[in-house]
Amino acid sequence: MADTGAPAGNETLLFLTDDQLRKGIEAMFFAYRGFTADPDRILSDKGYGRAHHRAIHFINRSPGTTVNNLLSILGVTKQSLNRVLRTLIDDGLVESRVGTRDKRERHLFLTEAGETLESELSTAQRNRMRSAFRQVGPEAVVGFRQVLEAMMDSDMRRHYVRLREAGE
Amino acid sequence: MADTGAPAGNETLLFLTDDQLRKGIEAMFFAYRGFTADPDRILSDKGYGRAHHRAIHFINRSPGTTVNNLLSILGVTKQSLNRVLRTLIDDGLVESRVGTRDKRERHLFLTEAGETLESELSTAQRNRMRSAFRQVGPEAVVGFRQVLEAMMDSDMRRHYVRLREAGE
DNA sequence: CTTGGAATGTCAACAAGGCTGACATAAAGT
DNA sequence: ACTTTATGTCAGCCTTGTTGACATTCCAAG
C-alpha cells in the first residue's frame, strides 16, 4: 500500500497519491451507476437492456453506419450485437438496408419509432448530465472531459474523436 | 432535439448545450471501458469477473463489513452477491466470520491471497488513473471529481462519502 | 473466367451474472 | 412465545457476453 505517486515533500503532486487515485476510482464506479440509472429504468419497462441503448445511441449518431463499424465502437462480438439488432429490427425501431456498393454490408438507420425511443433515452441521460454540469460550472466540466479522454484506450479515443468531428 | 440548455446569446452557458452534454455522455461511455479494461483482463485469466472485483474492492476498503452493507453498496440482490462471495470464500480469497456482538451477521475479510489479488487489480487500475491524472493536472482532476459526485444518485453518494470518511 | 480466400452477417448453444420467489435457520428484539 | 432481521440456498428466468459453424458476397490470383 505504499504511495508510489508523490515523492514526499514535492510541490503539488499530492493529487497523484494512492488515496486520491482511489477516490477517483470509487467516484467512477458510483457515478457510472447514476449515469445509466435513468435509461435503464426506461428500457426495462419496454423489455430492452443497456445493450439496446448503446446500439440505438450510435446508430442515431451515425445513421447508415455498418454493422462492422458499430462492432468496433461497441467492442462486442458480432454475434452479440446481432441478437440485439435483431430484436430492434423486428420491433421496427431499426431499419437494416443492404449496401448498394457492397452487398455484404448492412447499413443501419433508426425508424421514426426508433428515434422516439432514442430521444426519450438521451433526454433522460442529458437531464442528469445537465444538472451535474450546472452544479459544478464550466471549468469543472472541462476538467471532467480531460480526465475521461486521458483514461480511454487509444482505439476508443479514435472512435470518440471521429464522432466529435462528424457531429459538429 | 431543441437545445433546452442555453437561452441563446447568454454569457457562458454554452457548456450546457445538448451537444456538450452528448460529448460528456460519450466520454463517460468510452472512458468507463478503459477504466475496467485492465482489471477485466487480469480477472478473466483467473476465471473471475467484474462482480468479483467489486466485492474484493469493497471488502478491502471496509474490512469486517457485513453482507448486508456490501449489498447496499453494490446494489445487487443477496442471491447474486452470494454466488460471487461463495466462490471467493471457497477459493480462499475471502473469509467470513460470524459476528461476535450479533451472531446473525457475517463479517467479511480478505485473506492474504485475497489481498494479493486486490493489490494486483487496484495497482493496474490506479496506474491508468494516475497516468490520466498526470496528463491533465490537478485542476482538471478536481473538476473530474466534482462532476462525478454531482452525477451520483444520492444514496450512492452517501456510500461514497462514508468511505471517504473512514478511509482518511 | 473461375476459384479460393477474406469480409460480412446469421444461427445455435453455452456461460456469467443480474433478477424474482420461496423457504430455512439462527439470533435478536418485544 | 412471537415477530423481525440477517443470512444462506434452491430453482428458474433474462440479458448479454462468448465460440463455433455456416451462408453470402466480393475480390484478386491464376
**Alpha carbon gyration radius of chain A:** 20 Å
**Overall outline of chain A:** globular
Which strand order do you get reading across the main beta sheet of chain A? 1-3-2
Oligomer: homodimer
Largest sheet composition of chain A: 3 strands, antiparallel
**Roughly what fraction of the amino acids of chain A lie in strands?**
5-15%
Alpha-carbon distance between the two ends of chain A? 45 Å
DSSP helix count of chain A?
Answer: 7
Quick check: average pLDDT of chain A?
90
Structural class of chain A: mainly alpha
One letter per element, helices H and strands E, the order of chain A comes to HHEHHEEHHH
Runs of chain A in which pLDDT lies below 50 for 5 or more consecutive residues are none
* Pair of chains with the largest interface and how many residues each contributes: A-B, 63 and 65 residues
State the helicity of chain A in percent bands. Answer: 55-70%
Structure description:
2 copies of one chain form a homodimer. The model of chain A has no long low-confidence stretch (mean pLDDT 90). Chain A is mostly helical and 168 residues long. Chain A is 68% helix and 7% strand. Chain A has a 3-stranded antiparallel β-sheet. In chain A, β2 and β3 form a beta hairpin. Chain A starts with 17 loop residues before the first helix and ends with a helix. The first copy, chain A, contains 7 helices and 3 strands. Chains A and B meet through α1, α5, α6 and α7 of A and α1, α5, α6 and α7 of B. Chain A binds a DNA duplex (30 and 30 nucleotides) through α4.
